[in-house]
Backbone:
């Protein structure tokens, strides 16, 4: 069983071995979350070649263990199960967390489906049991928690800072924050003027 955690990947160095569609999805996710990505493959998809920038380095070669030097996380995303297993074993020996795209049960972490609305992050995962069910649930959540939650979380962050800096006991402040969490966006905007 996996434990859901949120990691700050800003400036973390991640090795992704593989250059196909799955590797590309992982690389995009990692880049969107601030990671420095080194991708290794003898063949990269055209999309990855176009994506290369100052936070993505593409190395046109096969994998070798020396590529794990100074790496914080690794993703084994090849279509070769034996190679993915070797990468996993090498990571274990160097205490580097590794994701095997072909074997979630033999991974230190997995990539859930994620919905972001400002400071609201929802993630869904079936731990590899059914990626299609994961997608369906994520789509339902994305409909339920629409883009208005981007504004809601921004307003609640500002109001929380104001409430915590204001007068009152910890219990009174907690009650105010609970009430605010139930307000609509227009109500939150009007309450912001009161602080």
Residues:
């Amino acid at each position: 069983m996996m434990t859901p955690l949120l990691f700050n990947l800003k400036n973390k160095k991640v090795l992704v071995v593989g250059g196909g569609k799955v590797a590309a999805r992982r690389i995009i996710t990692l880049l969107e979350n601030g990671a420095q990505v080194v991708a290794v493959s003898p063949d990269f998809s055209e999309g990855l070649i176009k994506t290369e920038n100052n936070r993505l380095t593409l190395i046109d070669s096969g994998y070798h263990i020396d590529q794990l030097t100074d790496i914080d996380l690794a993703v084994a995303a090849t279509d070769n199960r034996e190679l993915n297993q070797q990468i996993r074993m090498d990571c274990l020996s160097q205490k580097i967390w590794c994701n095997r795209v072909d074997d979630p049960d033999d991974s230190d972490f997995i990539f859930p489906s994620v919905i972001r609305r400002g400071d609201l992050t929802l993630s869904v995962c079936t731990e590899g049991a059914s990626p299609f069910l994961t997608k369906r649930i994520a789509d339902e959540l994305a409909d339920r928690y629409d883009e208005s939650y981007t504004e809601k979380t921004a307003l609640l962050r500002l109001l929380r800072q104001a409430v915590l800096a204001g007068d009152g006991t910890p219990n009174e402040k907690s009650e105010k924050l609970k009430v605010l969490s139930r307000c609509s966006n227009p109500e939150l905007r009007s309450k912001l003027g009161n602080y």
